[in-house]
Amino acid sequence: MTRWLDEDEQRTWRNFLATSELLYAALDRQLQRDAGITHASYIVLAMLSEAPDRSLRMSDLAVKANSSPSRLSHAVARLEARGWVRREPAPQDGRGTVAVLTDAGWQMLADTAPGHVTAVREHLFDQLTPEQVRALGDICATVLDGLDPNRVARPC
Amino acid sequence: MTRWLDEDEQRTWRNFLATSELLYAALDRQLQRDAGITHASYIVLAMLSEAPDRSLRMSDLAVKANSSPSRLSHAVARLEARGWVRREPAPQDGRGTVAVLTDAGWQMLADTAPGHVTAVREHLFDQLTPEQVRALGDICATVLDGLDPNRVARPC
DNA sequence: CTTAGATAGTTGAGCCTTCAAGTAAAGGAG
DNA sequence: CTCCTTTACTTGAAGGCTCAACTATCTAAG
Question: Nucleotides of chain C within 7 Å of a protein C-beta?
Answer without folding.
Answer: 7-12, 15-21, 24-26
